[in-house]
Amino acid sequence: MLDFTELSTDGSKFEQLIRELLLKAGLRPSWTGVGADSGRDLIAEEEIIGPLTRARALWLVDCKHYARSGKSVGVGDVVDIFDRCARISASGFLLVTSTQPSAELMRKLDEIKKSERLSVTVWDAVDIEKRLLTHENYYLAQQFFSSPGTQDWKIFYTEREQRWTAHYRGNFLYVESRSGIDPPSLPFLQRIIHELSRVKVSVGECLRVRAIWHDTPNGCFYNCWADYLVPANTVPSLNKFEVERALRDNIDGQVINWEMNLQLTLPSSDYHDEDDHQYYSRFKEPLYHAVYKVNASTASEENPHWWRVNPPIIRNFNDALMWGKVKSIHGYHDGMVTSPPYR
Q1: Partner of 312 for a Cys bridge, out of 5, 25, 37, 264, CB 3.0 to 4.6 A?
Q2: Does the pTM exceed 0.90?
């Protein structure tokens, strides 16, 4: 679990964390003046786009950071909700807490919600952690907490019954089982991830697991997708055959099909993230769809090449400049892509 006691007791770091989460959720947050409890409130502007109109809604965001004491947020901690919202013309109230609201406060908020005078939402510590431990927001957990995800396993259900999001010692991955009842054996998933860590790569390079699928009814078959991240200003130290040769495809009778993807990166970019959400975009479909698209690897000593080199993620003009200076060494030229000139 994330340890919210790591955040400063004055609540400033907690407020900054929530501001970043709101930004990532597509809202436009800004600070109000000093609130009723001598702290700042946040305003979050939400754009609501319908088929016929575009509307704007304001939320008053009240942050309560009581993780050090562990106390619940009570009725006396959240006062003058209607007046505070009216002063900024807010139509919604969002309570965010690093602990949990008391039962009495929840009854009060439910009454306000039922009155339809305000929209009311609550994020408690569990909700915040679930939002942070996603591939879109995991970098925030790394930024605000000293050791997010260093505990062994943390598993969350998703809206898809066969899929879980999982964290293992700083790794974020999707996990699916064909049966959809229970996730695959976690101890064996650990062994798959550790197998990747055995591959020796050059400084600046790394292998990152992205997804694992288990053919549950047949028991012993796994598919693992991983990225070989290589700085764009260098060439890969290993070719595809060398990576695959370093990985065992049978561990104690369990058969593993490795799907390795060569992904170039820009480590000097302000947006560089080894677990960037775009690296997971290819897993929007159920993993078994990807399994049936998998072709057996053709890498060999005679044909060891990476048949595809994925360009780095470009987020701004500086990223484009950095990539423009080095892209030719990977076979990228203006208007065309050729095979990379390295093995």
Answers
A1: 264
A2: no
